[in-house]
Amino acid sequence: MNNSGTIMSNLLHLNFDNNNFFSVDDMMRSMAAFPSLRLLSLKGSFLEEGKLFANEVPNLPYLEVLILSNNNFNGTLPMEALASFHRLEVLDLSSNFVGSIPSKIKSLSSLKVISLAYNNLNGSLPHYGRFSKTKMLHTSVTLWLIELKNLHELDLSGNNFVGNLPKCFNMQSSLKFFDISSNQFTGILPPSLIANLTSLEYVDFSHNKFEGMFSMSSFSNHTKLEVVAFINENDEFEVETEEPIGWTPMFQLEVLVLPNCKINKPKGSVIPSFLLHQHKLKKLVMNLNTRLLDMSGNHIIDGVIPSSVGDLGKLGTLDLSHNELSGEVPSALFTNLPYLGIIKLSNNSLHGDVLSGNLSSGYLYSLHLDSNRFTGKIGNKKNKLSTLPNLGLLDISNNLFTGLIPDWISNKSYLSELVIRNNSFGGRFPCGTNSFSFLDISQNHFTGSIPSCLNVRGLKHLHLGANKFTGSIPNSFCNLTKVLTLDIGKNYLSGTIPEFIGELSNLRILLLGKNNFSGFIPKQLCQLTNASLIDLSNNIFSGSIPSCLHNITGPSYQAFMQGSAPPAYYMLPSYIYKGVQDKYFSIEGKFMNAIQDEATFTTKTQSLSYKGEVLNIMSGLDLSCNKLSGHIPKELGLLSQIRALNLSFNLLTGTIPVNFSNLANIESLDLSFNSLTGSVPSELIKLNSLSFFNVSYNNLSGRLPEMVAQFSTFTKESYEGNPLLCGPPLENDCRKESRMTHPSNEEGTDEKWYDIDMASFYGSCGSTWFVFMLGFVALGYVNSYWMRRWLDFVEECMYACYYFF
What we know:
Blueprint: E1 13-15, H1 24-33, E2 39-41, E3 65-67, H2 79-82, E4 90-92, E5 98-99, E6 113-115, E7 120-124, H3 133-139, H4 142-147, E8 153-155, E9 160-163, E10 177-179, E11 184-187, H5 191-195, E12 202-204, E13 209-210, E14 212-215, E15 227-229, E16 237-240, E17 255-258, E18 262-264, E19 283-286, E20 317-319, E21 326-327, H6 332-335, E22 342-344, E23 349-352, E24 366-368, E25 373-374, E26 393-395, E27 402-403, E28 417-419, E29 424-427, E30 438-440, E31 445-449, E32 461-463, E33 468-471, E34 485-487, E35 492-495, E36 509-511, E37 516-520, E38 533-535, E39 540-543, E40 576-577, E41 583-584, E42 598-603, E43 606-611, E44 620-622, E45 627-631, E46 644-646, E47 651-653, E48 668-670, E49 677-678, E50 692-694, E51 699-703, E52 724-726, H7 734-741, H8 758-782, H9 784-804
Parallel strand pairs: 1-2, 2-3, 3-4, 4-6, 5-7, 6-8, 7-9, 8-10, 9-11, 10-12, 11-13, 12-15, 14-16, 15-17, 16-18, 17-19, 19-20, 20-22, 21-23, 22-24, 23-25, 24-26, 26-28, 27-29, 28-30, 29-31, 30-32, 31-33, 32-34, 33-35, 34-36, 35-37, 36-38, 37-39, 38-44, 39-45, 44-46, 45-47, 46-48, 48-50, ...
Antiparallel strand pairs: 40-41, 42-43
Helix pairs in contact: 8-9
C-alpha cells in the first residue's frame, strides 16, 4: 500500500507511513490479509500506545523489514510481539520508547540493521561474563549483542546510556555502521574494540564523555572507513595521531570531525601526518590547539597552516577555528580546492592581507575569517571577493581591516549574511538592492545618516551600533517587518522614537542606548509584546514611564538558536551514508556553519554580551540615565519574566512599589539616584533570584528589610545616600531613629514614647523659652501700646490672685 492505503502490485510491501486515516484495527486486518509481506512500514502513523499487536500478532513469516519509527509510544519495547518475526533483517524502532533493551531481542537472530535512535533508553552496557544471567535479562545489551552476529548497522544514538563501552562490541566483525552519539558513555575506549571491526564505514562516538587516549592507528587496517566523528563533551579525551611512528592509513575519509579533542601532532606542523594521505575529504573539523600536551614527544611550536592543505582536492568543509594558528593563510587554500564550500578560520592569530589574493573557489558560499589579525581593504582593486558567484555568508569581524565598503557588497544578490563588526571601516555604508537577513556593521567608524535606501524587508538582525551615525531613525525602518534584533545604540542619533517601532511585532531586542534621543517614551512600545531586551538608557527622555510597559510579557517562542545555516540554495550536497537506512551527517551545535546573534546589555553595573540561545531567556529593561519623572508604575511589578530592571539616574519620585515582590526572576534591580521616598518594602525578601540591588542616593527612610535570603548578601553600598534609613547593614540604629522621628510606640518593640533623652528635652525647652521671651521683648520695644496692654494684663492677674488667696 502507499500512504493512502492502496495495494501495490507485488503485494510484498505495506506502507502506512504518516497515516492519519486508518485505525490500528484496520491496519491489523490489512496485515493479516497478506501473509507474504516482506516490508511493513508504520512510520509516523500515530499508532495508539498499547494497541499495537495487543490482541494477536499477525502471521507474517516472511517479514524482512519492519519500520515503526516516529510514533512516540512512550512505552517499553514490544519484543514479546516481535519475537515471532524470525526472518526480520531490518528493525527501526527509533523515536518511540523508554526503559531498557529487553533481552528477547536476541531471538531476532537474522537482524542485520537495528535502529533504536532517539528513544529514552537508559542504563549501562555491562561487560560480558561479569554479571549474573538474572541481571542481564533486565539490564544488559551485551547478551543480545553477542547473539546478533550478522549486524551491519547499529544505531543507539540519542539515548541515555551510561558507563563504559563493553569490549564485546568487537565481536561484530560485519558491522559497517556504528553510531552511539549523544549518550552519556564514559571511560576509556579500548583499542581492540575498534581494531577488530575492519568492516566499519561510519563511526560516530560524538557527544559522550569519554576520556583517556585513543589512537587513530586503531583504524589503520580499515579499508572502507568514510566517516569518523568524535565531538567530545569534556576536555579529558586525547587523540593520538602519530604513534606508532610511520603508520599509514588504508582508508580514504570523507568526513573527519575531531573538535574538543586534544590532538597530538607531528613536530613542526599543526596538521596530523595521516591527513596528508586523505584525498577524498569533504568535511574536516579539528581542534589543533598547540597549547595541549604532545604525548608523542614532539616539540610544541606556534602552528601555521601548511601549504599541503591545498592537496585535499575534494575537501568541501574546512574548520580550523578556535586554535592558536599564526602566520599567513596559504594561497593554495583559496586556489587549489575547487569544491570547498565552507572555510572557517575563526578565533586564531592569523595575519596578512588575506583578501588581496586570488579567490577562485566557485563553490565557496561561507567564509569565516573573524577574530584574527587580518589587515587590508575590502575595496582594494585586487580583491576577488566580488567574483565569488555563490558567496552567501561573509564574517570578517574582529580584525584590523580598514578603508571604505565597496558598492558591490550591497548589490551581491546571494550575500545574505554580512558581519564586519569591530574593524576600522569608515565613510558611508553603501546602498544597494541586496536583501540581507543578517547585517552587522557595528563598532566601526561609519558616519553620516543611517542609509534610508537599504533594502530592509528581509532583515532579521540589524546591528548598526557603536558608529558615528547622526540624524534620526529613518522612516524606511517601518519596513523591518521581520526584524528580531535592532541595534542602533552608541551613536549620535537624535529626535524622537517613531511610533511605527511599536508595529514591528517580531522585534525581540531593541537597543537605542547612548544616543541623544528626546521626548516622551511612546506608548506604542507597549505593543512589543514579544520583546525581551529594551535599552533606552543614556538619552534625554522625559515625562513619566508608561504604565502599559507591563504588556511586554516576553518571548513566547525561541527565536535565537545556536546558529542558523545559510539558505538552502547555498548548500553543497552534504554527506549521506548509503546504508540500508540512509544516514545524513551534519555537524551540530557550535560547529555548524552559522552566525550567532549577539547583543550587549548592562546588568549588575556590567556591560555583558549575550550570544546565541542565551538570548531566548535573557530579559531586561534599561531606562537609566534620562530625565524621567513621576512615580514608578506599580504595573511594572507584573513583568514576572524580567531578569534586569534599571531605572537609575532619573527624577523619579514616590515610593518603591510593593508588588515588585512579584518579579520572581529578577536578578538585578537598580533604582539608585532618584528622589524616591518611603521605605524599602520588606516584601522584597521574596526575590530569591536577586543578586544585585541598589536604592542608594534617594530619600528613603525607615527600617531596612531583614538580612535574610538574598538580602543577606547586600552591603551598605546598596543603601548609602539615604540618611533616614536604618538597620543592618547600615550603622544607623533604628532605636535612635525611632526616638527622634516616631514618638509613638512602634509595633514589635519594647520602647515607650516617654523613654526620651532628658538632656535633649530640657535643652529643647530652654531654647524654646528663650526664643519666645526674646521675641516678646522685641515686640514691646517696637510697639509701646502693646507693651502697656501687656503690663495692665499682668497687673490684673496679680490683683486677682491676691484677692483669691
